[in-house]
Specification:
This protein has helices at residues 2-36, 51-57, 60-75, 79-82, 161-167; strands spanning 95-99, 105-108, 117-121, 126-132, 138-143, 149-153, 157-159. By secondary structure, the chain is an alpha+beta fold. The strands form two sheets. A five-stranded antiparallel β-sheet has the order 6-5-4-1-7. Strands 2-3 form a two-stranded antiparallel sheet. The chain is built from five helices and seven strands, in the order ααααβββββββα. Residues 50-87 and 163-175 have low confidence and may be disordered.
């Protein structure tokens, strides 16, 4: 009788340890597989070709550029891409910046996490900050090498020094 009590205790103890170890291994396996999965790939401007001009054409800033585009086809089709030096003539309050977030940023059609993604900006890529949202949490940007515009989360860029000279008279910092 005494011997059967000890046997029951040992079997129960061993089963308890086995169940505890098995459940710990299952939880560890689940967590490691979740952490090992790669995040979704960002969508960059080069990956989306046709939908982007249609979205930028609906914005008020881009509606000014189609007015410029009809004038340039009369000269030749190639001046339209070479018009990219016009972003050096920055709009009032705009300045050049560089993306400082190592994973790059998603461009969105409106300020907010629920807004549609319309492209992406790579790490260290130059952009033009056009304006900030009213709550100062989002920035409207234009890619320097193209005419794609969108909204990015504020705080993920570094202002470039050479743009301070060109936009020093602008009231952007006083807003």
């Amino acid at each position: 009788m005494f011997l059967s009590g000890i046997a029951k205790f040992l079997i129960g103890f061993i089963l308890g340890i086995a169940i505890l170890a098995g459940s710990g291994a299952a939880v560890a396996y689940y967590l490691f597989t979740k952490l090992a999965a790669n995040p979704p790939k960002p969508i960059f401007a080069e990956e989306q070709k046709r939908p982007l001009p249609a979205k930028t054409a609906s914005s008020p800033k881009a509606s000014k550029s189609p007015a410029v585009k009809p004038a340039s086809p009369s000269a030749s089709p190639s001046p339209t891409p070479s018009e990219s030096p016009t972003p050096e003539e920055l709009p009032t309050g705009a300045y050049k910046a560089r993306v400082s977030w190592p994973e790059g940023l998603s461009l969105r059609d409106e300020p907010g996490l629920e807004a549609n993604r319309v492209g992406g900006v790579a790490y260290n890529q130059e952009i033009i900050i056009l304006k900030e949202s009213e709550d100062q949490k989002w920035q409207k940007v234009r890619i320097v090498d193209g005419d794609q515009e969108g909204w990015i989360k504020a705080g993920n860029t570094e202002r470039l020094e050479d743009s301070e000279e060109s936009s020093a008279p602008s009231p952007q910092q006083s807003q």
